[in-house]
Amino acid sequence: MEGLGEAFITFFKIGMFTLGGGYAMIPIIETEVVDKHRWISKEEFLDLIAIAQSCPGVFAINISTFIGYKLMKRRGAITCALGTALPSFLIILLIAMFFHQFQDNPVVAAIFRGIRPAVVALIAVPTFNLAKSAKISWVNCWIPIGGALLIWLMGISPIFIILAAAIGGWIYGKYIKPTE
Fold first, then answer.
1. 152-176, pLDDT tens digit by residue?
2. Helix H or strand E segment including 106
3. For every residue of 23-60, which 3-state class applies, written as one string?
4. N or C terminus: which one in the chain shows less Cβ crowding within 10 Å?
5. Beta strands in 59-156 (DSSP E)
6. Residues 87, 178: Cα–Cα separation, whole Å
7. Please, what sign has the CA dihedral across residues 151, 132, 122, 47?
8. Its pTM surpasses 0.70
């Protein structure tokens, strides 16, 4: 580990150059943290994604905090979280300062309409990559699809879906899955 400065710069770059929120950051975080710096393994990264998704709060801050903590305990957690959050804070601050000047500009509205499909793709690609890494196949793809439909169509709280999936996974691992 190169130190706090390197961690801050890495997560600052991630926060600065990622559109689409935390899920769009996943491939960039993976490239930097797993492939380039080798701070954690691919398996640890997948575990941290699962933990960050299940915790309340902003996904990108959660995962950067967990990675920072794993690397350098409390100081690392604070450093990586600040590195991730600071670019967005500064950009929003600048937009807020000048928003009244361009809020009704048709060019700006058209730019945002054009960005929307790209953001959807930025979120979809890591979702499919995560599904592949988590070994979701045609045999078990009904689990995330069923969970999404229960949340969307029936209004079931995601907390209950997560709890049901955890209990189902425990039962499967303890009683159903054959030992290898």
1. 899 999 889 889 988 988 888 888 8
2. helix 106-133
3. HHHHHHHHHHHHHHCCCCCHHHHHHHHHHHHHCCCCHH
4. C
5. none
6. 48
7. positive
8. no
Q: Name which of 82, 109, 101, 110 is nearest 16 in CA terms.
A: 82
Residue carrying the six token digits 């794993």 = 70
Task: Extract the tokens encoding 178.
Answer: 């054959």
How many Å apart are CA 124 and CA 131, to the nearest integer? 11
Collect all residues with Cβ–Cβ distance below 8 Å to 138 and sequence separation of at least 6: none
Q: How far is CA 49 from CA 23, 44, 65, 117, 131, in A?
A: 10, 9, 11, 24, 12
Question: Which residue, chain included where needed, has tokens 């400065």?
Answer: 5
Residue 158 tokens read as 């995601």
Confidence of residue 180 (pLDDT cuts 50, 70, 90): low
Q: From CA 171, how far away is CA 60, in angstroms rounded?
A: 31
Model pLDDT, residue 73: 94
Report which residue type is found at 172: Y
